[in-house]
């Protein structure tokens, strides 16, 4: 028979061939079309077993609770305050979600900023999302660093925020909210235990003292929390402050973003002298870092 009449026998799928006959470099071509990975991640293969959402939720909430105050922070003041998940919580969620990829495209540089484009790819469903983030080159970096090192820090902050934003927008909102609540719940339990042991005034004073060490004065704390005196701070306020302390310590955000300067017409906080007197007499310490030993 001529070449035109030749019958081509298709290659047998891997299931009917021995391990020695299967070339690992071409294995993915034997998978059903819906299971092939069309991304640059050649080592990632869509799993045959579907993602189980209850298991994803359980592992996400467990890890978020362990993460605690590193999982969130707040910015803005008073009624305008906004709470949000941190990059650490975003990484927690994307790990637990599994079978996905997060990547950064080429960075666009303009005179006053870097523009990052982050991409999220769900390898199981094929869902893809890209989002851009603009990182200002004028972002304030605290600490005794030279300008080159400050530029490095600004760049890394922008990269982290770009990844955080695309992950939080790609994953289900209900999962993000529940993980955030789990993280805050764990912190709240520890603060409530401290309050039961030492009393609310000492826990408040310890939080204010730690913030003062970081460069946040009492007026800015009260302004951000929408309170007129330190004695009016609540346990819920302390939960937020704990997250903000963690964000400052890790460099996730700036003091100016989380504790804006009070406006000119904002009333001055009362009870400052009382706070100083209480700080001078404190003699207990908490594992949370809210209550200290002189």
3D structure, described in words:
The termini are far apart. This protein is an alpha+beta fold and 294 residues long. It contains 9 helices and 6 strands; from the N terminus they run H-E-E-H-E-E-E-E-H-H-H-H-H-H-H. Strands 3, 4, 5 and 6 form a 4-stranded antiparallel β-sheet that branches. Helix 1 packs parallel to helix 4. It is 43% helix and 12% strand. The longest helix has 26 residues, at 173-198.
SSE topology sketch:
Blueprint: H1 53-67, E1 72-75, E2 82-85, H2 87-97, E3 100-104, E4 108-110, E5 113-122, E6 128-136, H3 147-170, H4 173-198, H5 200-213, H6 218-225, H7 235-250, H8 255-258, H9 272-280
Gist?
43% of the residues lie in helices and 12% in strands. The protein has 294 residues and is of the alpha+beta class.
What value does the average pLDDT take?
79
Low-confidence stretches: 1-10, 12-22, 27-34, 271-294
Q: First CA to last CA: what distance?
A: 98 Å
Separate helix tally = 9
What order do the SSEs take from the amino end to the carboxyl end, as H and E?
HEEHEEEEHHHHHHH
Shape: flat
Evaluate the radius of gyration: 26 Å
> How much of the polypeptide forms β-strand, as a percent range?
5-15%
Profile the largest sheet: 4 strands, antiparallel
Structural class: alpha+beta
Q: In percent, how helical is the residue content?
A: 40-55%
| Strand runs, count | 6
């Amino acid at each position: 028979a001529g070449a035109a009449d030749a019958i081509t026998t298709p290659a047998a799928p891997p299931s009917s061939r021995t391990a020695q006959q299967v070339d690992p470099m071409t294995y993915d071509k034997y998978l059903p079309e819906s299971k092939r990975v069309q991304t640059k991640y050649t080592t990632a293969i869509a799993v045959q077993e579907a993602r189980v959402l209850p298991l994803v939720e359980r592992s996400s909430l467990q890890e978020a609770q362990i993460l605690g105050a590193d999982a969130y922070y707040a910015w803005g003041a008073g009624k305008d305050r906004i709470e949000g998940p941190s990059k650490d919580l975003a990484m927690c969620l994307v790990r637990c979600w599994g079978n996905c990829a997060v990547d950064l495209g080429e960075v666009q540089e303009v005179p006053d900023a870097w523009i990052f484009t982050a991409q999220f790819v769900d390898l199981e469903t094929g869902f893809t999302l890209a989002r851009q983030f603009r990182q200002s080159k004028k972002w304030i970096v605290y600490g005794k660093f030279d300008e080159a090192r400050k530029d490095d820090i600004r760049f890394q902050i922008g990269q982290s925020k770009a990844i955080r934003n695309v992950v939080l927008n790609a994953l289900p909102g209900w999962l993000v909210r529940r993980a955030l609540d789990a993280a805050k719940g764990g912190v709240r339990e520890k603060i409530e235990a401290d309050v039961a042991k030492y009393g609310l005034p000492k826990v408040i004073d310890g939080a204010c003292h730690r913030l003062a060490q970081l460069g946040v004065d009492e007026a800015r704390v009260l302004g951000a929390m929408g309170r007129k005196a330190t004695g009016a701070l609540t346990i819920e306020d302390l939960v937020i402050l704990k997250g903000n302390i963690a964000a400052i310590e890790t460099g996730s955000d700036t003091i100016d973003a989380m504790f804006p300067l009070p406006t000119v017409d904002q009333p001055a906080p009362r009870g400052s002298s009382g706070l100083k007197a209480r700080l001078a007499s404190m003699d207990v310490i908490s594992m949370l870092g809210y209550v200290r030993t002189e």
